[in-house]
Amino acid sequence: MASFPADRGREQLESLEFVERAEDLVLYGDVGRGKTHLAIAIGVLACRRMIPVRFLAASSLVMRLRKAKDENRLDQEPKAIGRAGPVIIDELGYLPIDIDGARLLFQAGADCYETRSVVSASNLESGGWGDVFGDGD
């Protein structure tokens, strides 16, 4: 069963106001709870409203950023990704990411900060994100 914070619900998600305000959304829960399904639904709704969307698995995003770094175009890749309204990053934390990949992923997220929404789907609680971004114990 999905649950929402007391001040957020289906109506707020469907309005996409969080996208207009460049706020982030974290979809957290155990495997099989519908996080990816909900992220896709948000993306489809945004597309229907003519808002461009990027949907990437976290591991694919890291590989894309590594390739851009290797090709000396790392400054251009976040801009290409960032042309979207919301950027949806699925499966954050499902696969381990080495320290270099974690730094690239963190930088991509930082580049989005306060300029566009990032919707992240993860099975990790926020306390476990340090392991994903390379600063966990």
Q: Key terms for this structure?
A:
137 residues, alpha/beta, Rossmann fold, four-stranded parallel β-sheet, 7 helices, 4 strands, globular
What does this entry show, briefly?
With 137 residues, the protein is of the alpha/beta class. The chain is built from seven helices and four strands; from the N terminus they run ααβαβααβαβα.
Molecular structure report:
The protein has 137 residues and is an alpha/beta fold. The protein has a single domain (13-132), classed as P-loop containing nucleotide triphosphate hydrolases (Rossmann fold, 3-Layer(aba) Sandwich). It has helices at 10-15, 17-20, 35-48, 58-70, 77-81, 99-112, 129-132; strands at 25-28, 54-57, 87-92, 118-122. Strand 3 (87-92), helix 6 (99-112) and strand 4 form a beta-alpha-beta unit. It is globular. It starts with 9 loop residues before the first helix and ends in a 5-residue tail after the last helix. The mean pLDDT is 86.
Describe the protein's topology.
Blueprint: H1 10-15, H2 17-20, E1 25-28, H3 35-48, E2 54-57, H4 58-70, H5 77-81, E3 87-92, H6 99-112, E4 118-122, H7 129-132
Parallel strand pairs: 1-4, 2-3, 3-4
